[in-house]
Amino acid sequence: MPDIIEQHRRFLPHFQAAEQIINLTWRLAFTLPHHLIDLHTEIHEQLHELKQQKDSHRKHQQILAYTKMIEDYDAILGRCEDAHLSLCEPRIAVMMCNAFKFYDTNLYELHAFCLMPNHIHLLIKPLQNHKGEYCKISGIVQRLKSYTAKEINHIIGKEGKVWGDDYFDRFIRNQDDYNNTVNYILYNPVKANLIALAENWHYSYYCDA
Fold first, then answer.
1. How many Cα atoms within 13 Å fall on the side-chain side of residue 97?
2. Sign of CA dihedral 169, 189, 67, 175
3. 209 residues of the chain, pLDDT tens digit each
4. Nearest residue to 112 via CA among 6, 19, 194, 198
């Protein structure tokens, strides 16, 4: 069992252990449609059941169900429009992509990301600092959200809240899970009908190391 780096919850439970690759998602601050709010509630309930479940077969089934809920949530979210702000506006998108790459090899290893109009996907492996302590996911997310929020407000000439309060995180379990996650991230714009071919999306990245 790897060392636990942090374990806490705000609206959602968060867990990080040493040497894990972690899939992160967060969205812009806007009011969700009612059907998405209902699905978000189901995700909360599924997470609670997962935490209580000890039977390995039952837990595996619940993990699959939870993953399907996240994918459904993400597919619907990808088609929601925010008339006030799009992360794919070229100036914002370039800034966001540069921000993700800036902390590569510093706070984390950057494996993949995809920028959608109203949310982001980020696949990273947190690194150790000069003291040998692992960078915490909560700190990484806070730093990225804080910097990019200020830059977005500067670009659009406004003030106020940019990002939603929380984020989803899920650690990668094995190589198959890793491959499936990378494919899911890169093909997100295709599933949202934003583009026909994933390789033509300008605001995604994968490090094939």
1. 16
2. negative
3. 566 656 655 545 565 666 789 999 998 886 455 455 555 556 656 655 555 556 566 666 666 666 676 666 666 665 666 557 889 999 999 999 999 999 999 999 999 999 999 899 999 999 988 888 888 888 999 999 999 999 999 999 988 889 988 788 888 888 998 999 999 999 999 988 889 999 999 999 998 76
4. 198
Query: In Å, what is the CA distance from 171 to each residue of 35, 57, 157?
Result: 27, 19, 36
Entry pTM = 0.75
Contact 37, 73 (CB under 8 A): no
State what percent of residues in the chain have pLDDT above 90. Answer: 43
Q: What is the pLDDT of residues 87-119, one digit of tens each?
A: 999 999 999 999 999 999 999 999 999 999 989
- Return contacts of 94-100, CB within 8 angstroms, 24+ apart: 95/148, 95/151, 95/152, 95/155, 96/120, 96/148, 96/203, 97/203, 97/205, 99/144, 99/147, 99/148, 99/151, 100/144, 100/205
Fold of 15-29+85-209: Alpha-Beta Plaits (3.30.70)
Contacts of 61 (CB under 8 A, 6+ apart): none
CB–CB of 5/17 below 8 Å? yes
Domain boundaries, the chain: 15-29+85-209, 31-79
Q: Which residues pair with 125 in a beta bridge?
A: 109
Q: How far apart are CA 26 and CA 121, in angstroms?
A: 7
